[in-house]
């Protein structure tokens, strides 16, 4: 049993490293495309018009999705992980979204994600951007002022070493330390709680990920 779990963990780490290399390749390709993109002025104007129409449509979609998300609830499993009971929407919107949970674990979100390549934010970040990171398979570590400085420091060190993770303060959350992934969430007692490692192993690029392998860089950094 222990050997199988170790093999699965090694396989996931290798897969994440492969995704990171692929993402770096995409970044290099994007830089080349950026140099040539300046000549496509007309196409840019057309795209701008299309984006305006899409944004107006997104605003309507967001209002509708709020009521759908609110109809769900968390269901706590035997392992202590809470799972959202209904399917979470994935529309891109341009305005803030009223999520039925804090911190949110999914739903409509901004088209730009927060960088989640082991990024630690000392200030609060916008939910609509963090949710997009969860869609890409990231684990979001959050804490409030009740968390000890030692725990915050230890968790930050773990996040910095983990691709597809991010960390930020969320003062309004119910418990001092919480871990979130797309559709899943749990509270942990401290940075040394074994459930921290288990949550990371399970949900960093886990089966719940709507868009596995999507970028965790080239988004927002603050």
Q: Which percent range describes the beta-strand content?
A: 5-15%
SS element count, helices = 5
- β-strand number: 7
Count up the domains.
1
Order of helices and strands: HHEEEHEHEEEH
Overall 3D form: globular
Output mean pLDDT.
Answer: 83
Kindly report how far apart the N and C termini lie.
Answer: 42 Å
- If you compute it from the alpha carbons, what radius of gyration comes out, rounded to the nearest whole angstrom? 18 Å
Major sheet: order of its strands? 1-2-7-6-4-5-3
Backbone structural class: alpha/beta
Helix content: 40-55%
Q: Let me know the largest β-sheet.
A: 7 strands, mixed
The low-confidence runs, each spanning 5 or more residues with pLDDT under 50, are 32-69
Biased composition (Basic and acidic residues): 1-27
Protein name: DUF3105 domain-containing protein
Keywords: Membrane, Transmembrane, Transmembrane helix
Transmembrane segments: 32-53
Plain-language structure description:
The chain is 44% helix and 13% strand. The chain has 222 residues and is an alpha/beta fold. The chain has one domain (2-203). It has a seven-stranded mixed β-sheet with strand order 1-2-7-6-4-5-3. Strand 4, helix 4 and strand 5 (165-169) form a beta-alpha-beta unit.
Key terms:
222 residues; alpha/beta; 5 helices; globular; DUF3105 domain-containing protein; transmembrane helix; membrane; transmembrane; DUF3105
